[in-house]
Specification:
Strand order of the largest sheet: 1-2-3-5-4
Strand content: 35-45%
Largest sheet: 5 strands, mixed, barrel
Shape: globular
Structural class: alpha+beta
CATH architecture: Beta Barrel
CATH class: Mainly Beta
Distance between the termini: 28 Å
CATH superfamily: Nucleic acid-binding proteins
Radius of gyration: 20 Å
Helix content: 10-25%
């Protein structure tokens, strides 16, 4: 009798851990190299202090510029939720630029898409937003994830009886 009651929670726990283990959008090898947990604003205030550090950032793509020698993707930084997915909304911490040495298609890296990246800070570059000079931290990407709307990162929903429910 006790074993039967125990087996159902164990099955749910095992299933939940399996989902959690697969829920990250960025590769574990890249995530393991992150050595700076700060934000865009920290780097803008002291750019030289963070050069060479590895960050895990994400946000909403503002613009993708295809250049002769690669691609620049401008991203508005948002906090990351579980699974490395950016959480757009009122919280944003500035803009950063992901600079690649290869072509990244603007149809994939399109304005408004969510993107997560693990990358090395290689400096800052001043560009303009309207009439404002803006210092962009520049990331050399180690791993990049562009989120599709159908990408699911949430754990399964649960429901008890009538009218009570939620998500883990």
């Amino acid at each position: 009798m006790g074993l039967e009651r125990l087996s159902l929670p164990v099955v749910f726990l095992a299933a939940g851990l399996t989902v959690m283990g697969c829920a990250h959008g960025l590769k574990p090898e890249a995530r393991a190299q992150v050595d700076f947990q700060g934000m865009v604003q920290d780097v803008q205030q002291s750019p030289g202090a963070y050069e060479g550090r590895v960050v895990r950032w994400g946000g909403t793509i503002v613009e993708t510029r295809v250049l002769a020698g690669g691609t620049d993707v401008v991203v508005l930084q948002h906090p990351l939720e579980f699974g490395d997915r950016p959480k757009p909304g009122d919280a944003y911490w500035g803009r950063f630029m992901v600079r690649t040495q290869d072509f990244r298609d603007p149809a994939v890296f399109q304005r408004g898409a969510l993107m997560s990246v693990v990358g090395r800070l290689v400096g800052t570059e001043t560009d303009r937003i309207g009439e404002l000079d803006y210092a962009y931290p520049i990331l050399e990407p180690m791993d990049v994830k562009v989120w599709r709307s159908e990408d699911s990162y949430r754990l399964p929903a649960f429901h008890f009886g009538f009218g009570f429910g939620g998500r883990f």
